[in-house]
Every structure is written in C-alpha cells, then in structure tokens.
Amino acid sequence: MTPLPDFVDEAEIYVEAGTGGNGAVSFRREKYVPRGGPDGGDGGRGGDVILVVDPALTTLADLRYRRHYRAGRGGHGEGGNRHGRRGEDCYVPVPPGTVVRDRDTGAILADLADPDQRVVVARGGRGGRGNARFATPRRKAPRLAEKGEPGERRWLKLELRLLADVGLVGWPNAGKSSLLARISAARPKVAAYPFTTLAPNLGVVQRGPGRSFVVADIPGLIEGAHQGVGLGHEFLRHVQRTRVLVYVVDAAATEGRDPQQDLATLRDELEAYEASLLERPGVVAANKMDLPAAAAHLSRLEEAARRWGLELVPISAATGEGLDRLLDRVEALLARAPASQPLPVAERKVYRAGPDPRRVEARREPDGTWTLHGPLVERWVAMTDFDNEEAVRWLLRRLERLGAEDVLRAAGARNGDTVRLGPMELLLGDATGSTDGEREGAPAGEPGGHRGDGGEGGSERGGRGETGHGPDR
Ligand SMILES: Nc1nc2c(ncn2[C@@H]2O[C@H](COP(=O)(O)OP(=O)(O)OP(=O)(O)O)[C@@H](O)[C@H]2O)c(=O)[nH]1
Ligand SMILES: [Mg+2]
Fold this sequence. Notes:
Number of domains: 3
Oligomer: single chain
Number of strands: 18
CATH architecture of the largest domain: 3-Layer(aba) Sandwich
CATH class of the largest domain: Alpha Beta
CATH topology of the largest domain: Rossmann fold
Distance between the termini: 47 Å
Helix content: 10-25%
Order of helices and strands: EEHEEEEEEEHEEHEHEHEHEEHHHEEH
Number of helices: 10
Radius of gyration: 30 Å
Largest sheet: 6 strands, mixed
Structural class: alpha/beta
Bound molecules: guanosine-5'-triphosphate, magnesium ion
Strand order of the largest sheet: 10-11-9-12-13-14
Shape: elongated
C-alpha cells in the first residue's frame, strides 16, 4: 500500500495547569491584643493552559519540538488577609484547523477552526482557603488552612485538518493532480497554499479579486477506503471538511474501467464512511475529454450523474477544455454551501476563553503622557506596591513580556516621552543602549525609580508558548 502521505499533521503535547497556592495560617497582631483573630489569606488559583489559534501558523511542527506546557502556580495566601495571586496562564499557539483530543480517551476537546478561537485545555487548581475562612464562633483560632489543589494535567493529541473549500475525489489516475495543477497554474496569482507539509495537495484558485478558494487534491480513493484500505480513513477524514466535492472521473476509461461504475463506487465509498457526504454539493468532472475514447462514454456518465442529482462538466486537464465552466460551477456551489461544520465536541469541561487578556493598548493622554491599558496590565498595576522595589521590577518584567514597549512605540511614543504606571512615571529610553544611555532615561524624582529591565531586549520575547512559566512550577 502507498505509505501515508505527509497529509496529516499531528503532535502530542503534555499540558499541566498550575497548582493552586496554599492558604495561610496567620493571626492578627495588634498592640494590646495578645492574640488577634485569624487573618490568613487564600491561595491564588493556578494558571490555565490555553490553546490559541494563531492564523500565522500553518503546521504543528513547532509543537513536536516542545512538548511540555505548564502554567504557573498560584501564589500562597499571606497574613493580613492577603490572597495569593493567580498563577500565570500558559498560551500554546496552534494553527487554524487544529482538532484537539484527549490522547488517552480519544475524546474531542475542541475543533479550533476560527482564527481567534481560544480554549482552555487544562484548568488551574483552586487556591486553598486561608485560616480566616475557618473561624467559627466556637473555634476562634483555627490553626489550619487548605492546600491548593493540583491543576489539571493530560496528554493531548493535536491533529491538523485541511480546511479546504473544495475536495477533488476520484480514482487513482483520474487526473485530480493534473486538474489541480492546471487550475492553480493557469492563473499567475495563484500562490502555493502555505501548509508546507501539505503543499503538494493543496492549491488556491484565484478567480478575481476576493474570489478565491482552496482546493484539495485528495489521494486516489479506492474501493474499501471506508474500511481503511489504501489511504482509507486518512483521506476520508479530510473529505469531511470540504464544502463542495468535485468527482473527477476518467471519462476515457484509460485504465479499462467503466466511468459510470467508477462514479457509483465512489459514491458508495463516501456513503459507507459517512452517509451525509452524499448530500454535499458536488459536480462531476468528466476528465480526459481530449481522448477519442471519451466521447463514447459521455452520455452514460451524464445519465448516471443526473441520477445522483449532480451536474456534469466535460473537461480536459490536459488541454484546459471546460475548466472555466467547471470553476464557475464550483463557485456557484460554494456560494450556496454552508460553512464547514465544526466537529462535535465531546467534553463539556472545556470552555471557550474570553478575549485575549494579554492584549495591551497604549493611550496618549491629553497632557502628553502615555498610559497602558488591557486586562492584565490593569490588574498587575493595581496589584503592585509601588513602594516595593522588588514588586515594581516584577511589574516591569511582566510588561516587557507582553511587549508593552513595542506597543508604545507602535502607537507613536518616542524616546523621552513619559509613561505613567499607577503613581510611577517612566521615561521611554533606548533599551538597546549602553547602561550609560539608560541612566539618562531614569525617571525624575521617583524614589528608587526603575526602567524596563533594559538589557533583555523585549521584542523577540513573550512569543509562542514561552509565556506562562510560573515562578515555581
Ligand atoms: N489525455 C489526458 N490525460 C490526462 C488528463 N488528465 C490527466 N491525465 C493523465 O492521467 C494520468 C494520471 O493523472 P494524475 O493527475 O496523476 O491522476 P490522479 O487522479 O492525481 O492520480 P492519483 O494521485 O494516483 O490518485 C497522468 O498520466 C496524466 O497525464 C487529460 O485530461 N487528458
Ligand atoms: Mg494525484
């Protein structure tokens, strides 16, 4: 049998959410009160592992190199009813079209087709409750606090499926590849579709501005494919994702087969795999019409097609005859075909994450200073004790990871501009410069003022999947 083509892109990764922080055992200490009430805060929730669709990605190749993804642990609670901070989430970028399964149960967790979909695949553990929560009228001084719960962990199996609009199906040698080459090569604007590993089988057909669709040339179907014979299921799985089918039939019967029978068996195979495939809009391309033998078969093939409710277009991938008509027809079917259906998702535990909390915006205030906005930024700034040098440094590192400086500069901020973070004012400087250069940019009048930990050169960082390692994973 033909070896499996590099058609299915797969990867297995291990995801582990952060453990919740422990609750604290602590008692208030006040003057003249020998022993105050319990004031141990709760531990923070562990971070989640979140898959994020990144439309710039086209393969799962990156995930084969880095296989373990862990989110940060929640902070421990502290005295004074201070709760631990939430563990940092870990983001794993995946290409559109990624189907996510639990490796061990096989259950489909998500079908990530939308360009901005995000899904939590491992939830962080709950933080433990501090002893303040355990006080009762009878037990005023509880000496116990909960431990944080472990985060979810599991192995995932990721599969990249084609998201082609049109699938070319047919017997080996019917001329599917020739057809694809022809409709892709005939127009100079056609670009190789960027799925590198899948490139030989995918083409973008561009019929005019804004009128393009993706065609998949699917390896030849043979009888028994639905049982896994030949490329079997691999192939049929991809057919499932297309919206329109083109049945490519060798009308000249060059292999000595009966074209009419070919079409019938083709339909049988599709039906046996999944009956609904028969209802998918389709058109029969009677290929090889340039060969004299073809004419004799045409009327019977046409009749068979009509019985299935399919229109037939005679073509020749060799000469180009009939291709415009075929593509017109395909376009018309696509216009009416429903968008491809996502796969049914098995597990309800998985939820869709909200909008990306990492997004940062820079705003220019009326007084000419800059401020940063975004869910994470705002939370962090609110959380930071600006009198604590360590805390401020922590905040700046976080902001650097989010690419805050790039955002500021993209928004028009220049060296020497002031950036306000809570009560602190920073001067934007040249991060690549020497330490001397950095001194220049030291904020004026800020006790123990800081700048973004300059040396780490922000823009390359904080990218793919590298985020989210908590402090003590
Ligand atoms: N005369 C003629 N030959 C054709 C035409 N289209 C394809 N062929 C020939 O038919 C043979 C098979 O073509 P392919 O395009 O490789 O067929 P395929 O359907 O992709 O085959 P598999 O990949 O094996 O499933 C090649 O020798 C082509 O040159 C056509 O319109 N006219
Ligand atoms: Mg081929």
